[in-house]
Amino acid sequence: MPWQPSDRLLAAKPEIPTGNAVMRLEDADDISQIRDLLEVSFPGFGEADLVDNLRRDGDLVLSLVAEDDGIVIGHTAFSRLWVEGEGAPFPAVALAPLAVYPEYQQHGVATRLVREAHACLAARGETLSVVVGEPAYYGRFGYSNKRAARFISEYQSPYLMALSFGAAPWEGRLAYAPAFAALSANDPIQDHD
Ligand SMILES: CC(C)(COP(=O)(O)OP(=O)(O)OC[C@H]1O[C@@H](n2cnc3c(N)ncnc32)[C@H](O)[C@@H]1OP(=O)(O)O)[C@@H](O)C(=O)NCCC(=O)NCCS
Q1: Quick check: CB of 103 below 6 Å from ligand 1?
Q2: Does residue 7 carry a pLDDT above 60?
Q3: Position 4 confidence tier, pLDDT thresholds 50, 70, 90
Q4: Which of 20, 22, 135, 155 is the most exposed place for a label (fewest CB within 10 A)?
Q5: What is the pTM of this model?
Q6: Hey, whose CA ends up nearest to atom 4 of ligand 1?
């Protein structure tokens, strides 16, 4: 059954004001608004270019927007990431980027985006998500460095974290989508999400 946004997961966090924002899959009309958001949210054009390039290359597994009265106020993307080891490469996803306009922050919009994205990914059969980011933030969604500690990656550090929704490897080399190469060349590791 195709995934549909739902408030099911939000029921566990009733204290978070959710406003009128709707979480939904991106469509073609959102692309320029997503770019605007990412240009405002991160220094330089790295993250905006990353998402455009992932989309161009067919590597976007999931792109969700938070829309409020027709405006894209938040966005997150998950792209294909392969875990290479013995046997066939294992398909995982990489969470990057995640952004909400400053005036809409601190109202749980990013939390809703990430939780809805995880529900969608799990419903589609994805079992492993990896992020490079602030442990204090991503830890609230269940990401941990412990889950990612045995992966071989250019991003290996305390900021590399993983979350599994099902059976998935604990070891192997992480192969990010080619679009990440340009981001790596320009940005420090902490800016990768
Ligand atoms: C990070 C971001 C997406 C959060 O959006 P948001 O809609 O305000 O997030 P929520 O309302 O769901 O959650 C807010 C919480 O995140 C925390 N938070 C925000 N940025 C954080 C960071 N870099 N490190 C740790 N915690 C952070 C806030 O302190 C707040 O904590 P609280 O719930 O204990 O009060 C937003 O601040 C943003 O777009 N930042 C610029 C882009 C960016 O840095 N993205 C990568 C994030 S690591």
Answers
A1: no
A2: no
A3: low
A4: 20
A5: 0.89
A6: 110
